[in-house]
What we know:
Helices cover about 90% and strands about 0% of the residues. By secondary structure, it is an all-alpha fold. The protein has a domain at about 65-134.
Amino acid sequence: GGSGGMAAEGDVELELETEPNGAGSGGDGAGGRAAEKPRKHDSGAADLERVTDYAEEKEIQSSNLETAMSVIGDRRSREQKAKQEREKELAKVTIKKEDLELIMNEMEISRAAAERSLREHMGDVVEALITLTN
């Protein structure tokens, strides 16, 4: 295991080499950091105060919030269902490619937006355009 011993020696040497440099640069770094620290610290403290105030207000509201959230939750799931139904209905509407391109060019809107308005007007390009221009 002679080579093993050599490796260990190498490690020790490396450690010795890095130490003075590390201490040197560490000293500089610490100096530099120390100068920056107070500023960062102050803003941090200010932020902390703001966060604490915010947290306290939140606690007061949380009971109302929970009630509100459940109400919103119910409403949202209903809306979601209605939306899905609507999307299904809209998806059934047949639209012409020419109409789609016409709206895209006229209104300078994305394909998705053009298709959407066309479907909402049951494929009636005139209605779709009128709504979009208003």
